Amino acid sequence: xxNSIKVERAILNLTQEELAKKIGVSRQTINSIxxxxxxxxxxxxxxxxxxxxxAVNDFFSLSxxx
Length: 66
Prior knowledge:
Layout (H helix, E strand, L loop, with lengths): L1 E2 L1 H7 L4 H8 L3 H8 L7 H11 L7 E2 L5
Antiparallel strand pairs: 1-2
């Protein structure tokens, strides 16, 4: 799975720590998502969707490996 979380976060001028606090996870979780080491739960993806005011498909997409 690919994502553009880092780009979306930058558009809102949020640090990893600030985004993490807004959705109730650790900074390390945000880092792992951005690095494609962790696939978030549906609940977490929906929380990100609310923060970015975009559909989940706008910042997550399937890769060729999926």
